[in-house]
Design goal:
mainly alpha, single chain
Length: about 70
């Protein structure tokens, strides 16, 4: 029987809001940027950098999913 190597202790959700009534083409540009690989990669790097600033979090594993 396999043992679980990690346990989820907390989840943090990021909410992205845009102004109501934003033209469709501008809203679509925002959606495309958020869906892009570069955005997710940079967000992962930022989250990991923040976690590294807290010694108590040295053992945690951070993942970002959509």
């Amino acid at each position: 029987m396999a043992r679980t190597r990690t346990v989820v202790i907390d989840e943090v959700h990021l909410t992205v809001r845009i102004p109501a009534g934003l033209p469709d083409n501008e809203a679509e540009e925002i959606r495309e940027a958020l869906a892009g690989d570069e955005f997710m990669a940079r967000l992962r790097r930022a989250a990991r950098a923040v976690v590294r600033e807290f010694p108590a979090l040295a053992l945690v594993r951070v993942s970002l999913t959509r």
